[in-house]
Amino acid sequence: MTDEAEPARSAQTGWGADDLLGQALSRENLLRAWKRVKANKGSAGVDGRTVPQTGEYLKSAWPEIRQRLLDGNYMPGPVRRVGIPKPGGGTRELGIPTVVDRLIQQALLQVLQPLIDATFSEHSYGFRPGRSAHGAVLEAQQHVQAGHRVVVDVDLEKFFDRVNHDILMDRLAKRIADKRVLRLIRRYLQAGMLAHGVHSERLEGTPQGGPLSPLLANVLLDGVDRELERRGHKFVRYADDCNVYVSSRKAGERVLQALRVCYARLALKVNESKTAVAEVWGRKFLGYCFWAYKDEVKRAVATQALEKMRERIRQLTRRTRGRSLEQIAEDLRGYVPGWKAYFRLTQTPTVMRELDEWLRHRLRAVQLRQWRRGTTMFRELRRLGASVDLAARIAGNARRWWRNSALGLNRVMPVAYFNRLGVPRFS
User: Fold this and answer.
1) Helix%, strand%, coil% for the chain, nearest 5
2) Which of 251, 246, 247, 249 is nearest to 236 (CA)?
3) Which helix (DSSP H) or strand (DSSP E) does residue 96 occupy?
4) CA torsion 206→210→211→216, rounded to 10°?
5) DSSP secondary structure string for all residues of 107-118
6) What gap in Å lies between CA 169 and CA 164, rounded to an integer?
7) CB atoms < 10 A from the CB of 400, how many?
8) Residue closest to 317 by CA, chosen among 355, 289, 284, 359
9) C-beta separation of 219 from 108 below 8 A
C-alpha cells in the first residue's frame, strides 16, 4: 500500500468515542497499520494475494473498500485454515485472514487497544503494550517467594476455538460506543473458514492469526481476572494461561472449583487432564519453572523447554546433513540467540555452561564425521596443532564419532576455535 493508495485525511479535526471507525480509517492510522502488516509478512489468505500483491491491488481498490466500511456494507473474506504442530502433540488451528483484512484489523487494533487496554487487570501480561512473558514470570516468582507455594495451574480446552461470540460482543459493547466497529468485529468473528477448498461457517471462536484475536481474548478473560482480584487471590495471566498461587492444596481446590464456575459462565471449559493443583516445584509457566535455593526462589528453564531446544539443536547439527561447520554455525545463529533472549531470566548458570559444552561436543563430532577416519583426519588434526601422537590416536580410534570427539579433541578445537566460527553461546 503506497501513499497514493491511502484515502485522503478526513476534514474532521477531532474524533469522538462514537466514531472509532473514522479514527481507524484515517490516513495516518492506515499508514502505520500497513507498515506493521508488511513487517509481519505472513502468507496469503484465501484470495491468494501476497503482501506486495495486495499493495498493488489496493492502489485502485481501496477507495471502494473504505466506502463499504463506512457504509457498513463490508464483508470480510473467509480465513484460510492452517494446522501447525503443537509441542505436546496434536495441532493448533490458525486462521489466516487475507492481507486486506489483516490491514483493516490492524487499523482497528491500533485505535481500540489504547482505549481498552487501560481497563485490564495489572496481573494480565499477554499481548499487551509494554508487557511481556518476562513480566508474568517475575510476578509469579514474587508470589512464590512470598510463601504461596501451591499453584492452581489452569488450562482451557481449545480456548480460541470456543469463544462465544454473543458473550464476547456483550463485553465489547460495554467498552466500545461505535456501533459500526462492533458490527464489523462481529462479522470478522463470523467470517467462514476455508480448508482444502471446503468452506465452513464459524459459529464460535476467534481464529488465531488475525491481529484482533489477542485483544478480544483479553476482553473476554478480563472478567475472570476481576473476580480473582475481588477475592484477593495472587495470580498471573498470560493470554489463556492462568496461574493462581495459594498457600495450601485445600485452598487451591476451592479456587479451582470457583474458576470452573467463572469459565462456565463464559461458555469455556477447563481441560481437566492438563489442569492441576500442585506444589510449584516442577510445574512450568511460559517455559520457566522455579526451584528453591536456601531461602530464595530461583528461575530456571523448564525441563520440557530444555528438551525441545535440545531436539532443535540435534536437528541443526545432524552429522548426516552434509553441511560445513561454518554453515551449521550460521544456522545456530538463527536460533540460539532468540532462545537465549527469551530465557535470559534463568538463574542456573551451570546449566547454560553445560549446554555450551554439549553443543561444542556435538560440533566436534560433526567435524570428525566429515573428516572420516584415516589420513584426511590425521592431516586436519595436525593442521589444527595436534601433536603427532594425539592426531594418530584420534584418527586411528575405532570408537563412534560422539565418543571419539571427547578424545582430547577439546585441546585441538577449544572454545576459541568455535568463537572464531561464530558459534553462539548459551552462557
Assistant:
1) 50, 15, 35
2) 246
3) strand 91-96
4) 0
5) HHHHHHHHHHHT
6) 9
7) 11
8) 359
9) no
Residue pLDDT, tens place only, 95-131: 889 999 999 999 999 999 999 999 999 999 999 999 9
Q: Please report the sign of the dihedral spanned by the C-alpha atoms of residue 199, residue 203, residue 209, residue 210.
A: positive
> Residue 82 is placed in which grid cell?
492452517
**Chain Cα centroid distance, residue 347:** 22
**Which H/E stretch holds residue 395?**
helix 388-396
Torsion on CA atoms 347, 351, 353, 355, rounded to nearest 10: -130
Q: How far apart are CA 137 and CA 245, in angstroms?
A: 13
CB 299 within 8 A of CB 140: no
The Cα 37–Cα 42 span in angstroms is 8
Instruction: Give the three cell numbers for residue 256.
Output: 479451582
The region, left, alpha or beta by phi > 0 then psi within -120 to 50, assigned to residue 127 is: left
Buried-exposed string 200-219: b where 16+ CB fall within 10 A, e elsewhere: eebeebbbbbbbbbbbbbbb
Q: What are the C-alpha distances in Å from 17 to residues 11, 59, 175, 217?
A: 17, 30, 10, 22
Cβ atoms of residues 79 and 212 within 8 Å: no
Number of Cβ within a 10 Å radius of residue 392: 15
**Amino acid in the structure at residue 111:** V
DSSP annotation of 278 reads E
pLDDT in tens, 243-255: 999 999 999 999 9
Q: Which of 99, 305, 343, 80 is nearest to 208 (CA)?
A: 80
Nine-digit cell at 288? 520457566
- What is the per-residue pLDDT across 150-209, written as a single tens digit (0 to 9) for each? 999 999 998 988 899 999 999 999 999 999 999 999 999 998 777 766 667 777 888 788
Cα–Cα distance measured from residue 333 to residue 324, given in angstroms and rounded to the nearest whole number: 14
Give the Cα separation of 353 and 365 in Å (integer): 19
Cell of residue 207, nine digits: 481464529
Task: Region of 199 please: left (phi>0), alpha (psi -120 to 50) or beta.
Answer: beta
